[in-house]
Amino acid sequence: MMLGLGCSSESPTASPAGDPAASSSSSGSPSGSSSSSGGSSSGGGDGGSSGGGAGADAGPITSSGCGASGAAAGNLDWTIKSGGRDRTVRVHVPPGYDSTKPTPVVLNFHGRNSTAQQEELISGMTPKADAKGYVVVYPTGVGQTWNAGLCCGQAQTDNVDDVGFTRALIDELEKKLCVDKRRVFATGLSNGGFMSNRLGCELADRIAAIGPVAGQLLSTPCTPSRPMPVMHFHGTADAIVSYQGSIGVPGVEGSLKDWAKRNGCNLTPTQTYTKGDTKCVTYGQCTAGADVTLCTVDGGGHTWPGGFAVPGLGKTTKDINATDAMWDFFVAHPMP
Questions:
Q1: E strands within 163-269?
Q2: What SS3 state is found at 85?
Q3: Cα 163 to the chain's mean position, in Å?
């Protein structure tokens, strides 16, 4: 299985990882939320350290697809026209989907040279979506890449409008499915992590919160239309997208602090989770409750924490599951 997922040390690109770490007792909530139940569109806490915002119990905003003929549960393969190209998307509808009830959506972007199907495997997000009742969407990039600003590959060199594509994708989801417009989220691995960061900057009117994995912000300037909640996961031994940063790639801690500044947070973070090799810190007291959380895996590779361990890409921790933790964070941070 070919899984080159992002950026080399010279230019922004990436991939996932190896050995599970030994487990130990945990402390706190990775998401920084006072409650992390992780239910459907109205479950969970209110962001704990946040300074307000809509909160997890904010009522849904229904899309035009509510009440339309129900979609079958399982994987649906769609083609969407965007920028003169036919773009392919895998949409996973959970069992029990009700076309009359607004449903949260998570957009999950693959890494460079990877595929939608591989991202589904690596992140393990489909079983989580089935358990919690949300739709998960796995888009495919042009040339298996995303234009995330300074990176990557064909999408960048051809100046593909992947922000416009994502907007068109959300439009299509809202027409064909009963979507909770207050609860559309974005994540991704490596190049997909870069892309979810860019969406946080440029699509804040449609994306409620982002959860990048092994991919920081590479798009400038970043001027979101509202504060954007962020939960980021990264290994300190990532050999593809350096934790410390490299030419053209900012360091992870500085990148997250910049998000905290944009969101008007208290710039002294508090530790919100620790277990084994993993520690999470949260910048709280943010404008509109837009918390910023960084989960660092000591010795972690270019991997999805708690996900499928791809050989040759470093350690894949089992001391935190990024899919579980980011869902708790998303539940606590709907669109205001």
A1: 179-189, 209-213, 230-235
A2: strand
A3: 15
Helix (H) or strand (E) holding 253: helix 252-262
In this structure, are strands 85-93 and 74-82 parallel, antiparallel, or unpaired? antiparallel
All domains of the chain, ordered by start, with CATH?
27-332 (3.40.50.1820)
And the tokens for 132?
């919690």
pTM of the model: 0.88
Task: Characterize 133-161 residue by residue with b for buried, 16 or more Cβ atoms within 10 angstroms of its Cβ, and e for exposed.
Answer: bbbbbbbbbbbbbbbbbbbbbebbeeebe
DSSP 120-146: HHHHTHHHHHHHHT-EEEEE--BTTB-
Give 254-273 pLDDT, tens digit per residue: 999 999 999 999 999 999 99
51 pLDDT tier (thresholds 50, 70, 90)? very low
Strand order in the sheet with 270-275: 27-28, 270-275, 278-283, 292-297, 230-235, 209-213, 179-189, 103-109, 135-139, 85-93, 74-82
Tokens of 185: 């989220």
Cis bond before residue 151 (omega within 30° of 0): no
- Asked whether residue 6 carries a pLDDT value surpassing 60, the answer given is no
Q: Does 221 sit behind a cis peptide bond, omega within 30 degrees of 0 on the bond before it?
A: yes
Mean pLDDT calculated for residue range 86-94: 98
Whether the predicted pLDDT of 35 surpasses 80? no
pLDDT for the residue 2: 39
Instruction: At 39, list the tokens.
Output: 């239910």
Number of H helices, E strands in the chain: 7, 11
Please name every residue paired with 160 in a beta bridge, in sequence order, or none if there are none: none
**CA distances in angstroms from 86 to 83, 162, 170, 298, listed in the order given:** 8, 13, 16, 41
Q: Where would I find the H helices in 36-161?
A: 116-123, 125-132, 153-157
Provide the pLDDT for residue 27.
Answer: 67
